[in-house]
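Morning!

As promised:
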Amino acid sequence: QKEVEQNSGPLSVPEGAIASLNCTYSDRGSQSFFWYRQYSGKSPELIMFIYSNGDKEDGRFTAQLNKASQYVSLLIRDSQPSDSATYLCAVNSPGGYNKLIFGAGTRLAVHP
Amino acid sequence: GAVVSQHPSWVICKSGTSVKIECRSLDFQATTMFWYRQFPKQSLMLMATSNEGSKATYEQGVEKDKFLINHASLTLSTLTVTSAHPEDSSFYICSASPGTANYGYTFGSGTRLTVV
């Protein structure tokens, strides 16, 4: 079983719709969860982090965490074509250096 | 804040030569930096954790003698790909955090290495 799993997509949504991206992780000791956005040929940029159960909102983005189910999600409201990118879920690996383990990413395509 | 600079952004080298990639934290000190590699259409694979003043910690399957890491100061880590081969062609990215990992890591802009 992979440590961090995401549906590779592509997830195609119309402009203005809500895009829902999901991620599951295997290490129950993980405490910090991150969503990164990566445009083709570019390095990842941090969108949001969350470490408490529940929802966390920042503008059009909402991260949701359910530690009991080992599930993290990202909702993007009012999706725009500029949101088209690969979204990477990352989870901290407990113990020494707190390295991040990344999922394979979900490719999101927002069409006009 | 939390800017990580990576240089060069791209490099082409001949097989058998070595290439050095620099990663600098511009506005914060980074005791720890991370080096990732990403092949086309694949996710980031952690190669190693770079620790200031001590030896790097390599992930399983990563050759430490091939990928030399030096973290000589709190703002600079370097990755040297030694005796590069075409299969080493990839996108190499470093990352660091200004504080605890709970606040995420900032990535450098990446280095696209092509070995011919």
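Chain B touches chain A through 24 residues (CB under 8 Å).

Hope this helps with the figure draft.
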